[in-house]
Amino acid sequence: MSMPNKSAPKTPFNLLSIPIIKKFIKSKWYPGIFQWMVLIVFSVIVFELVAGTVSPHGNFGTTMTWVLWWPLIPILFIATGRFWCAICPFGKVSDIVRKLVGSERPMPKFLRKYGIWLIDLFFIAITYSDHVWGIVESPRGSGYLLLLLVTMVVATSVFYERRTFCKTLCFLGGLAGNYSRSGALELRGTPDICKTCKTQSCFKGSDKAEGCPMFQFPRTMDSSAECNICGNCVKNCPNDSIRLSLRVPTKELWGLKNPKLEHASLAAVIMGIVFVQNITMLEIWEDILSIISSFTGTSNYQVNFTIAFIFSMALPILLLLGAAKLATVLGMPNSVKKNFTLFGYAFIPLDLAGHLGHNLFHIITEGKAIWFNSLSLFGSKVTTGDLSLASTSTVQLLQYLIIGIGFIGSTYTAYKMGKKATFKSMLPYYALMLILGIINIYLFSLPMSHRV
Q: What is the torsional sign of CA 414, 417, 423, 425?
């Protein structure tokens, strides 16, 4: 009698083995029922932003976009991977346009090669524009930004196949991809079944559904960074090969097979952007501007903010580069570039924590505005008063807890990445995560101003 192999990895539980879940995902209702609900709400939001009150305090669109949606996005990425991208209104608009007038041309080689860099640049540009021109505080600015994005979606959907915009141009794509790597949900093909398949309908599509809109092939897919959990492959697969499983958050980061410089760089840049978002809401921001002004010789806000913005984004990159260089000197295998690229992914849990901590402030201290401005759509007049759902001290305690979890997640991720390295060569990365964690906690310890 043979003994069981205790060292064999356990196969994750397949959620599609639950009949009701499998039946729903394979039905025509998924993800359409969510897509249409989100699209209807999105249409109301855009209308309110463009035609409603110019006061961000009383505008339904501003509240729903920046007080509710933006704080919830990282939570959705952690819990459900890129499921948001499956039901995103931009994606649904793309599907509708392609069905009606799309030409299905192949994605341009330029976008295929440099799309992720364009995504990174668009994300940085939108963040920069917000701070320079006040898009978040301006309902009209937010509305015109969304309409600009819709225009880009329509243009790419008319000329190119599948969700070209979502894969190569959407400003949220890089953030979604990085955060989804830390997510608790993964979709994969079963290799032993996939290798005998001759139809490849998961990628090519069938009469049941379009092929993967994000150009993914489940048989070889080893990352959740570009899987929308749209269910098309589940509908199309004739062999029930697709698995949808829960996993330990951040686990995908531990054994990356093909780390890329653009993803690692974005992870470092996001940390810098979190710093910017926090610092510009603090009382010390004016003092920082004064210091910069003394060097530039001008009080022009755009000039001085640009310098602070570039410095904030460059700081985590320089710290990561320094850690990679020091680790190499202390015996870390591989080149400085390879170590920079690999361990840049270890930023992601702390990025998530910083993003969550920052947005937690808004959704808790301004949360009542969601209810008040929703009622105003139906003609109810509400005297807003205090918008807080909890005290500032309570918010700060939650922020410290979240940063602590993020620090543990990033440090443990670095540990798993460097399991073949010596402890001495790993010290620079552990020290780096500690420094970034302390900076985040310090910034959250200072009083912040409200958004609406």
A: negative
> Which residue matches tokens 């698995």?
243
On the question of a cis peptide bond just before residue 333, with omega within 30 degrees of 0, the verdict is no
Q: Report CA Rg, the chain.
A: 23
pTM above 0.70, yes or no: yes
Token digits of residue 247: 């996993």
**The token pair that represents 270 in the structure block:** 């996001």
CA distance 198 to 270: 42
Q: For the packed helices 261-279 and 173-180, what is the interaxial angle rounded to 10 degrees? A: 100
- Residue-wise pLDDT for 54-111, tens only, equals 888 888 999 999 889 988 999 999 999 999 999 999 999 999 999 898 888 888 888 8
Residues near 291 by beta carbon (within 8 Å), at least 6 away in sequence: none
Determine the Cα–Cα distance for residues 91 and 93; give it in Å rounded to an integer: 5
How far, in Å, CA of 98 to CA of 92, rounded?
Answer: 10
Q: In this structure, what is the dihedral angle of CA atoms 229, 412, 399, 76, given to the nearest 10 degrees?
A: 0
Distances from the Cα of 231 to the Cα of 31, 362, 381, angstroms = 7, 33, 43
Nearest to 134 by CA among 53, 50, 43, 62: 62
Q: How far apart are CA 212 and CA 190, in angstroms?
A: 17
Q: Is the dihedral of CA 141, 146, 117, 127 positive or negative?
A: positive
375 and 63 Cβ atoms separated by less than 8 Å: no
Residue range 380-430, pLDDT digits in tens = 776 666 778 888 889 899 999 999 999 999 999 999 999 889 999 999 999
Cα 164 to Cα 229: distance, rounded to the nearest angstrom: 17
How far CA 92 is from CA of 32, 166, 173, 340, in Å, comes to 9, 11, 15, 37
User: How far apart (Å, rounded) are the C-alpha atoms in residues 333 and 327?
Assistant: 9
